[in-house]
């Protein structure tokens, strides 16, 4: 049975009438867009379609102002369930508008590559439980101080030097394959001079010593 709200289930809050909620007032919004008209037809959900009028440039500009993502300072976009390409594209569109965000959570979104995104003021970023395979796939975060990459698929520490010139103080890499690399803690601290805490553990005296070099791998034995 259809619920009275069925005709609104794919509607953005921007399209609702008689309210003045702005994007920067939302703390945990769902940013997914609804399916296309063709997909709704094949799903048998064409009853959810609204008569679409011609949208003027003024209305487009008013919608952009209402979304107001540029003024978000703190935002949680975790658990978005981005199952379709058009949802991923809308998600990335919003990320590119977060020019003033300082705290951002993107947990469990099946993300693999945000290298085209720049977050110039972000100081705290949580991208745990995603599918990142390299530090090079992270967004540009020049002001980052606290970064969580727990439960991704980062195999090696290659590319971590991209964070070297940031004020990064705290890094979490728990449950990534690179955690089992030999001299893991020493390598991370030697690569990030401002780092104070790794995986919740403050820097220890033994973390300050340079990583041991295995000279045996460079020697040959003459019999």
Description:
The chain has 223 residues and is α/β, with parallel strands linked by helices. It has a single domain (23-204), classed as Ribonuclease Inhibitor (Leucine-rich repeat, LRR (right-handed beta-alpha superhelix)). Helix content is 19%, strand content 9%. The chain is built from 5 helices and 7 strands, in the order H-H-E-H-E-E-E-E-H-E-E-H. It has helices spanning 37-43, 57-67, 85-96, 184-191, 205-208, and strands at residues 74-76, 103-105, 124-126, 146-148, 170-172, 197-198, 201-202. It has a 7-stranded mixed β-sheet, covered by helices on one side. The chain is elongated. The protein starts with 36 loop residues before the first helix and ends in a 15-residue tail after the last helix. This is Protein tilB. InterPro entries: Leu-rich_rpt, LRR_dom_sf. Keywords: Leucine-rich repeat, Repeat.
Uncertain regions spanning at least 5 consecutive residues: none
Write the CATH fold name. Answer: Leucine-rich repeat, LRR (right-handed beta-alpha superhelix)
Strand content: 5-15%
Sheet with the most strands? 7 strands, mixed
Question: What is the annotated CATH architecture?
Answer: Alpha-Beta Horseshoe
The total domain count is 1
The ordered string of helix (H) and strand (E) elements is HHEHEEEEHEEH
Count the helices. How many? 5
Distance between the ends:
83 Å
Computed over alpha carbons, the radius of gyration is 23 Å
Category from helices, strands and their pairing: alpha/beta
InterPro entries: Leu-rich_rpt, LRR_dom_sf
Protein name: Protein tilB
Keywords: Leucine-rich repeat, Repeat
Organism: Struthio camelus australis
């Amino acid at each position: 049975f259809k619920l009275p709200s069925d005709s609104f289930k794919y509607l953005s809050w921007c399209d609702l009438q008689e309210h003045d909620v702005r994007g920067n007032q939302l703390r945990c919004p769902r940013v997914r867009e609804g399916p296309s008209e063709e997909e709704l037809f094949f799903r048998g959900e064409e009853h959810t379609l609204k008569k679409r009028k011609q949208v003027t440039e003024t209305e487009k500009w008013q919608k952009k102002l209402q979304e107001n993502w540029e003024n978000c300072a703190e935002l949680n976009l975790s658990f978005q369930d981005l199952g379709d390409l058009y949802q991923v594209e809308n998600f990335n569109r919003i990320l590119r508008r977060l020019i003033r965000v300082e705290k951002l959570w993107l947990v469990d979104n099946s993300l693999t590559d945000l290298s085209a995104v720049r977050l110039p003021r972000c100081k705290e970023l949580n991208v745990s439980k995603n599918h990142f395979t390299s530090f090079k796939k992270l967004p540009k975060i020049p002001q980052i101080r606290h970064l969580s990459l727990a439960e991704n698929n980062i195999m090696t520490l290659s590319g971590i030097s991209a964070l070297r010139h940031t004020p990064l103080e705290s890094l979490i890499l728990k449950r990534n394959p690179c955690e089992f690399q030999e001299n893991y803690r020493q390598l991370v601290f030697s690569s990030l001079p401002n780092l104070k805490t790794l995986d919740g553990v403050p820097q220890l005296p033994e973390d300050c010593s340079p990583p041991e070099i295995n000279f045996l791998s460079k020697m040959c034995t003459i019999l």
